[in-house]
Predict the structure.
Amino acid sequence: MPAPAGRARHVLAATAVAVAGALAVGTAVAAPSPAEAGSTLGRLAAAKGRYFGSATDNPTLDNAPYTAVLGSEFNQITVGNTQKWQYTEPSRGQFDFTQADRIVAFAQAHDQVVRGHTLVWHNQLPDWVNDVPAGELLGVVRNHISAVAGHYRGQVVHWDVVNEAFEEDGTRRQTVFQQKIGDGYIAEAFKAARAADPHAKLYYNDYNIDGIGAKSDAVYEMVKSFKRQGIPIDGVGLQAHLILGQVPSTVEQNIRRFAELGVDVAITELDIRMRTPRDAAKDAQQAQDYRAVVNACLAVTRCVGITVWDFSDGYSWIPSVFPGEGAALIYDENFAKKPAYWAVYEALGGTVTTDPPAGCAATYRVTAQWHGGFQAEVTVRNTGTTATTGWTVRWTLAQGQAVRSLWNGVLATNGQEATVRNAPYNGRLAVGAATTFGFIGSSTGTNPVPAVTCATA
Ligand code: G3I
């Protein structure tokens, strides 16, 4: 598929994200690289005839630091929620495209292609659909597809026509569509989508079909049979919601076998989750895992692109569904690029010209908060390959924040800029070792957690 060049824009520096709750945390890993000014994941992917994109959702479109990255780094966007049935046809025959239109407009304004997601799914389905009599449901499905894909005709490059229709053992999931219409509903959905938008490539999309196994075998057999019968399917979406250190070894082989059936493949919802908190070893494993997925896609010409399921750890679905897990994406919650970002960057052909990460990382935590004041603790960790002899942490004071008294470091402020250097006794950190400093602060506003940078002396 044609992949436009992403716009060359500078990504905003890591910016504070207000985290709900009394105790908030912000981390920044110092990984400055000349490569940062050189390219973006979108442009690198485009040079390889692919896209590299992100899912997004409506609430984050009002977050300027977030949209600065979303609009500049990627050349593809997936509508993460608001094209789903619940939003587009909340009551029978009443369609609402307001929210999804906003995301599509954002993508168009930033030269990004759009993957439509998703027309037929048992989840995020309004209750009324479950109550449609069996004899009417196919008509309702056709009408929904006709209206939604018709509305976006010419504006999406792919549609996830049917999502997650199989169980892990390869049998059909017993959804309302399966139970009331029967096996034929998937083929009917693809036919309706082709009629509604002849230009969009039509995808079947699922999770746990990334490697070879019972579930991906079932999808493979379905695609093979659709091809034989002339049912209009153009692609298979491998969601790739993966676990740290567990990228299936057969991803490339799996992509290749689908390609050989005559369909495209896309990695549609990539994230690689870990037990939180992150540390340097987990970050390194995650970078290796992301690299493996990108390499598997690049190895097969018909693997047309990769989408991360949002790009920042602050905006991932994982922590709410898998308690204790997260940090699954390529930017941290403060929009700092993680080692996984640089692994993708390199795998896509970019050159990382400095040693990542140089020296140290700092994590800022609000440990207590009261009206007008707070206590914070900053952990400084040596993430480099040699012992530090000193370190410097910087951040910007916002919304009336001030540092009143500080321990285990030497404070200097210049206007809004706070700089803390090591105390005489804690500048030396062995590789992987950490130290902390703390302070009492005052704040007249919401006391946002700042983005902190760390540099070694
Ligand atoms: O919009 C309401 C909001 O009004 C309400 O205050 C809030 C309270 O919980 O809920 C909001 O709705 C949430 C919605 O996301 C929008 O944020 C739902 O509770 C929540 O369940 C829903 O989760 C979405 C999930 O699909 C539903 O299954 C995730 O954001 C979305 O990322 C996720 O995406 C799916 C893909 O579509 C298919 N593949 C798996 C992937 C991850 O689950």
In short: DSSP finds 13 helices and 19 strands in the chain. The pocket of G3I is lined by residues 57, 80-81, 123-124, 163, 207, 239, 269, 317 (CB under 6 Å).
